[in-house]
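Weekly sync notes, structure subgroup
Attendees: PM, AL, DS (notes)

Item 1: joint prediction request from the bench team. They want all two components modeled as one assembly rather than separately. Inputs as received:
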Amino acid sequence: QLQLQESGPGLVKPSETLSLTCTVSGASMSSDDYYWGWIRQPPGKGLEWIGSMFSSGGSYYNPSLKSRVTISVDTSKNQFSLKLSSVTAADTAVYHCARQGHIMGAPVWFDPWGQGTLVTVSS
Amino acid sequence: DIQMTQSPSTLSASVGDTVTITCRASQSISGWLAWYQQKRGKAPKLLIYRASSLKNGVPSRFSGSGSGTEFTLTISSLQPDDFATYYCQQYNSYPYSFGQGTKLEIK
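Output from the run, pasted for the record:
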């Protein structure tokens, strides 16, 4: 059964870079033909897609965050990562990682998801 | 960008009831819509994809319908485990977007 688990610092200072890793277990990322994505959820609010990257390269980022986001995939470690630069209090959220399928190369729904990790931006 | 609007924001119901949640897209998304269930502090779980296709293992009391700009999620014969927050997501076009959520509460 495929499982995803987020990890990383729970507290980041304003203007610094948020870095999270998602570890995938139960399947090999190198043999699977999927996108790997990040979605965040500010406290008490809804879900916002951050970006997705294909296992063999190629990525999509939310235009509202694109200038600050980098997603990378390391199939040798069965992990993928998120970096969000120049963070502010508005970036405080629970960050989820998820596998995203595709239909003829076009990303579709997310399944499964990691439980999420809370990242607070504060000095 | 496509905006997704869910209604109602909160829904109170009793065990055994049938409830319907609506999701409207700001422009046509054909049938490219998914529904998720999220319980407090847990990961969202996929229920339905392609507007009406039930994910394997999801109880048949969940059903989805719609196309274009209006979609519904119906839960029949509510069970205690169904009280949660539900989100729709469009994947017709980038950037992929979610509704704001509908919280299903016990009456």
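Discussion: Chain A has a mean pLDDT of 94.
Action: AL to compare against the crosslinking data before next sync.
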